[in-house]
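Q: How would the C-alpha coordinates look for this protein?
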Amino acid sequence: MPENVDLVRRGFELFAGGGPAALLPLTDPEIECYTDSRLPNAGTYHGHDGYLSWTQQWLEAWEDFQMEPLEFVEVGEEIVVVPLHQRGKGKGSGIEVEMDLTYLFEGRDGRVTRIHLYETKERALEVARELAPER
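A: Here is the predicted structure in C-alpha coordinate form.
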Protein backbone atom coordinates (compact mmCIF):
# COMPACT_ATOMS: atom_id res chain seq x y z
CA MET A 1 0.00 0.00 0.00
CA PRO A 2 1.39 3.43 -0.86
CA GLU A 3 2.90 5.31 2.06
CA ASN A 4 0.47 8.25 2.17
CA VAL A 5 -2.63 6.06 1.78
CA ASP A 6 -1.40 4.03 4.75
CA LEU A 7 -0.74 7.25 6.71
CA VAL A 8 -4.29 8.51 6.05
CA ARG A 9 -5.85 5.13 6.94
CA ARG A 10 -3.95 5.13 10.24
CA GLY A 11 -5.17 8.66 10.86
CA PHE A 12 -8.81 7.64 10.48
CA GLU A 13 -8.26 4.70 12.84
CA LEU A 14 -6.61 6.93 15.45
CA PHE A 15 -9.34 9.55 15.14
CA ALA A 16 -12.07 6.92 15.62
CA GLY A 17 -10.34 5.55 18.70
CA GLY A 18 -9.08 8.70 20.37
CA GLY A 19 -10.45 11.83 18.72
CA PRO A 20 -8.54 14.68 17.09
CA ALA A 21 -5.65 14.81 19.57
CA ALA A 22 -4.78 11.19 18.75
CA LEU A 23 -3.72 12.34 15.27
CA LEU A 24 -1.14 14.88 16.43
CA PRO A 25 1.82 12.45 16.24
CA LEU A 26 0.99 11.89 12.54
CA THR A 27 0.78 15.58 11.66
CA ASP A 28 3.42 18.12 10.79
CA PRO A 29 3.75 20.90 13.42
CA GLU A 30 2.95 23.42 10.65
CA ILE A 31 -0.09 21.53 9.30
CA GLU A 32 -2.58 23.50 7.22
CA CYS A 33 -6.30 22.81 7.77
CA TYR A 34 -8.88 24.31 5.45
CA THR A 35 -12.64 24.12 5.01
CA ASP A 36 -14.09 25.27 1.70
CA SER A 37 -16.32 28.35 1.77
CA ARG A 38 -19.35 26.27 0.76
CA LEU A 39 -19.28 24.44 4.12
CA PRO A 40 -19.88 25.49 7.75
CA ASN A 41 -16.83 26.70 9.70
CA ALA A 42 -15.03 27.76 6.51
CA GLY A 43 -11.51 29.05 6.84
CA THR A 44 -7.84 28.16 7.16
CA TYR A 45 -6.00 27.12 10.31
CA HIS A 46 -2.30 26.43 10.90
CA GLY A 47 -0.24 24.33 13.27
CA HIS A 48 -1.32 21.85 15.91
CA ASP A 49 -3.33 24.47 17.79
CA GLY A 50 -5.09 25.45 14.57
CA TYR A 51 -5.84 21.81 13.77
CA LEU A 52 -7.34 21.24 17.23
CA SER A 53 -9.42 24.41 16.97
CA TRP A 54 -10.58 23.44 13.46
CA THR A 55 -11.72 19.98 14.55
CA GLN A 56 -13.25 21.25 17.79
CA GLN A 57 -15.45 23.71 15.89
CA TRP A 58 -16.89 20.86 13.85
CA LEU A 59 -17.20 18.29 16.62
CA GLU A 60 -18.72 20.58 19.27
CA ALA A 61 -22.06 20.41 17.42
CA TRP A 62 -22.31 16.63 17.75
CA GLU A 63 -23.17 14.30 20.60
CA ASP A 64 -22.12 11.33 18.49
CA PHE A 65 -20.00 11.56 15.35
CA GLN A 66 -18.64 8.92 12.95
CA MET A 67 -16.80 8.99 9.63
CA GLU A 68 -16.68 6.17 7.09
CA PRO A 69 -14.08 6.56 4.32
CA LEU A 70 -15.49 5.33 1.00
CA GLU A 71 -12.25 5.23 -1.01
CA PHE A 72 -8.66 6.47 -1.06
CA VAL A 73 -7.66 8.19 -4.32
CA GLU A 74 -3.99 8.99 -4.88
CA VAL A 75 -3.20 12.17 -6.80
CA GLY A 76 0.49 12.40 -7.49
CA GLU A 77 2.95 11.15 -4.90
CA GLU A 78 1.84 13.19 -1.89
CA ILE A 79 -1.93 13.75 -2.07
CA VAL A 80 -4.76 11.41 -1.10
CA VAL A 81 -8.41 12.36 -1.66
CA VAL A 82 -10.91 10.58 0.59
CA PRO A 83 -14.65 10.80 -0.05
CA LEU A 84 -16.47 9.77 3.11
CA HIS A 85 -19.84 9.39 4.72
CA GLN A 86 -20.40 11.18 8.03
CA ARG A 87 -23.07 10.52 10.62
CA GLY A 88 -23.79 12.67 13.61
CA LYS A 89 -26.36 13.23 16.32
CA GLY A 90 -26.83 16.88 17.18
CA LYS A 91 -26.05 18.01 20.73
CA GLY A 92 -29.19 19.26 22.34
CA SER A 93 -31.46 18.54 19.38
CA GLY A 94 -30.77 14.82 19.12
CA ILE A 95 -31.39 15.10 15.38
CA GLU A 96 -29.44 12.57 13.35
CA VAL A 97 -27.66 13.94 10.30
CA GLU A 98 -25.83 12.13 7.50
CA MET A 99 -23.77 13.73 4.75
CA ASP A 100 -21.05 12.96 2.26
CA LEU A 101 -17.96 15.17 2.19
CA THR A 102 -14.45 14.79 0.82
CA TYR A 103 -11.09 15.30 2.47
CA LEU A 104 -7.83 16.10 0.73
CA PHE A 105 -4.72 15.01 2.63
CA GLU A 106 -1.15 15.82 1.73
CA GLY A 107 1.63 13.82 3.31
CA ARG A 108 5.38 14.32 3.27
CA ASP A 109 8.13 12.55 5.17
CA GLY A 110 5.63 10.35 7.02
CA ARG A 111 3.47 13.21 8.33
CA VAL A 112 0.25 14.87 7.21
CA THR A 113 1.06 18.43 6.13
CA ARG A 114 -2.33 19.50 4.79
CA ILE A 115 -5.97 18.59 5.43
CA HIS A 116 -8.67 20.22 3.34
CA LEU A 117 -12.41 19.60 3.46
CA TYR A 118 -14.64 19.97 0.40
CA GLU A 119 -18.29 19.47 -0.36
CA THR A 120 -17.66 17.15 -3.32
CA LYS A 121 -15.10 14.64 -4.54
CA GLU A 122 -14.89 16.53 -7.84
CA ARG A 123 -13.86 19.77 -6.12
CA ALA A 124 -11.28 17.99 -3.95
CA LEU A 125 -9.79 16.27 -7.01
CA GLU A 126 -9.65 19.58 -8.89
CA VAL A 127 -7.70 21.20 -6.04
CA ALA A 128 -5.50 18.11 -5.67
CA ARG A 129 -4.51 18.29 -9.32
CA GLU A 130 -3.65 21.98 -8.92
CA LEU A 131 -1.50 21.27 -5.87
CA ALA A 132 0.23 18.12 -7.14
CA PRO A 133 2.43 19.85 -9.76
CA GLU A 134 3.84 22.15 -7.04
CA ARG A 135 5.93 19.33 -5.62
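The two ends are 21 Å apart (CA to CA).

The chain has a mean pLDDT of 92.

Upvote if useful.
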